[in-house]
Amino acid sequence: MQTGAFLAALAVALGAFGAHALKSRLDPHMLANFETGVRYQMYAALALMILGTQAGQTRAPAFLLSGALIFSGSLYLLSLTGVKMLGAITPIGGVLLIVGLVLAALDAGKL
After folding, report:
1. Which of 2, 40, 49, 68 has minimal CB crowding within 10 Å?
2. Average pLDDT by consecutive 10-residue portion of the chain (111 residues)?
3. Does pTM top 0.85 for this prediction?
4. Domain total in the chain
């Protein structure tokens, strides 16, 4: 629960940073990448907060957190640096997020 809440607070702060400080500095495509990172970070944060209230959810949180860090983090770095190779890392984070959500569903079925 705490990790999800922190991740959500960070997503709000990064979203505000993107909307105000980066809007005039990034081209629209890179700004859209940054915003996608913020959006998926918030999705993961909300899922972590929900899972924090559910007994038996021991596998999914680690995948969701690592997925959010890799997916969103790579998009933030890509947006800020323009290093296109970072885009190759993003799908790894996406797969981790998907695995985390599938594990959450499977573990919820065991309760």
Report:
1. 2
2. 97 97 96 98 98 95 98 98 96 98 93 60
3. yes
4. 1
